[in-house]
Amino acid sequence: xxxxxxxxxxxxxxxxxxxxxxxxxxxxxxxxxxxxxxxxxxxxxxxxxxxxxxxxxxxxxxxxxx
Length: 66
What we know:
By secondary structure, the protein is mainly α. The chain is built from three helices and no strands.
């Protein structure tokens, strides 16, 4: 659960920073990566009791491999 909260906070920071950089003319890729990490953290928090250790890891692997 704590890991999910940390992922969500990191994803929020990355998406916010990515939006700022995209507004300055940069690539929107960091927005997408930040949102994926944010959703991964939310899944880890939401399903931590139902499916331990498996709910958000698959989605977290998507931005990690790119």
